[in-house]
Amino acid sequence: xxxxxxxxxxGAHRVEDHTPRDPGPGEALVAxxxxxxCGSDREVYQGNRPEGYVTYPVTPGHEWSxxxxxxxAGVPGSLLGRKVxxxxxxxxxxxxxxxxxxxxxxxxxxEETGFTRPGAMAATLTLPARLLHVLPDDADLxxxxxxxxxxxxxxxxLKANVRPGERVAVVGTGTLGMFAVQFLTAVSPAxxxxxxxxxxxxxxxxxFGATGFRVRDAEDPAPPGDFDVVIETAGSASAxxxxxxxxxxxxxxxxxxxxxxxxxxxxxxxxxxxxxEVHTVFGAPPDAWAHTVRVFGAGLLDPLxxxxxxxxxxxxARAIELVGAGDPKVGKxxxxx
Length: 337
Fold this sequence. Notes:
alpha/beta; Quinone Oxidoreductase, Chain A, domain 1; Rossmann fold; seven-stranded mixed beta sheet; six-stranded parallel beta sheet; 10 helices
């Protein structure tokens, strides 16, 4: 029987029968293969997602993979039967930012699959076909369910603009950090250091291409370094300070984590005096998605080692608990409709 998860309000959810919504003009219907859970889904369930970034009741699920089973008017029939992933941001396509390709900065306001629109914790998902990215026919759909977080990291990698032979570092060893290691490995750095608060990810970091691993004290920034590029993925103010400390003068810093509001951040004097170049990422624009799918198709991304749990939709509550438990043995948790 087809089911979907509905979060009615913070802390209240039910799993109920699911009726697919036929695709309208410009839309596609996707049979969901797997959907990932991340910290933002936990925020939706707990009720601490920032105001304006969730609309209740909602079916969560913004990290997913599936197969197109129907298309609406105006959508090429060649999409039928194709394996796909899809962008979450429902951009307007007509504002100045959208025309510049910066769809995550759309001025029409925030709308995203799984937060303000029905998400993929369901048997099917109906969404604008323009948001879909087609995968190779032999793609592993379980692995592909992780391409949304990978696309966010791809956005960071593109902004970092790493050249072969540069010295690079990643701060953070979660899913985003491990993808950052893989994207950076693909451009042949001279050195790739991973910095985390525990050593349990060292073996995986090295498997993905890291040449060094360092455990940091969350209260004490790293000693000064001379790296050309650092990508921060940990989501804490202390991680951002550590990342900045690792850079050479004139180095490039990309922040992807979101600390608690009001956190003490980077020292502006340090940024100016050392002439650091700082970039930030929130979500993934189309070019980052296209880059991710291309790198995945070329076999340069290996998401499967990050998956530790696969559960049915009916175990949504347990999955949310696992994600928030802080257990180092819990990596990426997937739900399977």
